[in-house]
Amino acid sequence: MIRAYKFLLRPTKSQAASLTDMLRDHCSLYNGALQERRDAYRHTSRTTVRYGDQSAQLKEIRAFDPERHGRWSFSSQQATLRRLDKAFQAFFKRVKAGLTPGYPRFKGVGHFATVTFPKNGDGCRWDSTPHDRQTRVRFQGVGHIRVHQHRPVQGRVKTISVKREGTRWYVVLACDEVPAESLPSTGAIVGIDVGVAHFLTTSDGEHVANPRFLKAMADELAEAQRHLATFPKRTRQRTKRHRAAARKVAKLHARIRRQRVDFHHKTALALVQEHDVIAHERLNTAGMTKAPAPRAAPEQPGSFLPNGAAAKAGLNHSILDAGWAQFLGILANKAESAGRLTVPVDARNTSRTCPECGHVAKGNRLTQAKFQCTACGYTANADHVGARNVLNRAGLALCDVA
Predict the structure, then answer these.
(1) Coil, strand, or helix at residue 37?
(2) Which residues are bridge partners to 9 per DSSP?
């Protein structure tokens, strides 16, 4: 299997400054390569500059400016150019598909947060032994940085990335040949229904509360955002007080994100440890949280009819705060590592179908929490009904595969 490991770095003050310089110089390389492609297409008969052309110029760039570009790994700079090339490939793919193209943009220093080293030992080296929690990672131009390794690394380290998140630095290891650590069989199968009132409900009738991390910190976050908004636009970019206010907002968002990820990992681990098969709905959260299209008023040109956007905005915030897509991704990864099986099923009408008689009707769902079948009168919690239907559909899918 292929797995990624993310560890917190403990750089010294000088090492943190060197890491910042590395991100800045790679960002400059990315923007310069993007500018070259734009200029070549606009001013030289629409000539297309490709990755091979720009990679061949790296040697001259490093020799011309050894202080900014010559001190960093050659392979990491190639990876930055490949990153730009992938952005253009995705752009042309969207153009051919008739989607919104989204031309690649220049990166600000604050938004260029990752540098990748394609091969362990080429410009970087992971120095670790099994069960060693005081390991280090070496980056060319920076030196050996202490790593907080909270779990052993298995498999073969293929690529290494250094990433900045706020004021913290992380190293991300991509490993292959990671062995599966199968858990003992439990013989249990469960269906889960994710929601907003409860984070998830199992087919056994158990509810997992929704922590609502964003809502819990809404007041503190709103106060920090109001303070940030008080700075006039003319002084909003470079003043020390503005940067401090922006860091406060970013710090709160980072804390919410870490709390959510930790909750998802713990909840997914509990499900994987207790069940052999876990069924869940196949959800398109991007479509579910999309703003409704405006409705033009036919009798009043330039005016629009109510479309429920304000009401749906609250639901969208709750869905995004729950983080269903991230949780289901974590669940799938943990299940694969443990030798478990996850079964995604069609999500349509799972909360409107009676699990006893199979009757499907919109009127079966009386409220957010109550389900009552209009045909047989079966009454239960709506989320529990959804989880039971997910389990039933998973059973049918497994029978078809068998």
Answers:
(1) helix
(2) 147
Q: Of 393, 358, 381, give the one whose Cα is nearest residue 372.
A: 381
Q: Domain tally for the chain? A: 2
Average pLDDT over residues 226-236: 80
**pTM, rounded to two decimals:** 0.86
What CA–CA distance (Å, rounded) separates 71 from 273?
47
- Please give the residue range of the domain that contains residue 269: 189-213+254-291+316-401
User: What pLDDT digit, counting tens, does each position of 275-300 carry?
Assistant: 999 999 999 988 888 888 888 888 88
Alpha carbons 345 and 386: distance in angstroms, whole number: 12
Q: What is the CATH number of the domain that holds 348?
A: 3.30.420
Query: Please, which residues bridge with residue 149 across strands?
Result: none
Give the alpha-carbon dihedral of 306, 308, 311, 314, to 10 degrees: -130
Q: Does 244 fall in a domain?
A: no
Handedness of CA 75, 76, 81, 82 (dihedral sign): positive
Q: At what angle do helices 74-97 and 13-43 cross, to 10 degrees?
A: 50
356 — pLDDT class (breaks 50, 70, 90)? very high
| CA–CA gap between residue 37 and residue 31 (Å, rounded) | 10
**Mean pLDDT value of segment 211-220:** 95
Tell whether the model's pLDDT for residue 207 goes beyond 60. yes
Pair 131, 265 in one domain: no
Judged on CB neighbours under 10 Å (0-12, 13-18, 19+), 36 is middle
Q: Where are the alpha helices (DSSP H) in 121-235?
A: 213-216, 218-229
Per residue in 97-147, pLDDT tens?
Answer: 998 899 999 999 888 999 999 999 999 999 866 555 568 999 999 999 999
Long-range contacts of 16-21 (CB under 8 A, 24+ apart): 16/169, 18/141, 18/142, 18/143, 19/139, 19/142, 19/162, 19/164, 19/169, 20/164
**Which distant-in-sequence residues (6+ apart) come within 8 Å of 132 by Cβ?**
149
Structure tokens at 161: 């990335």
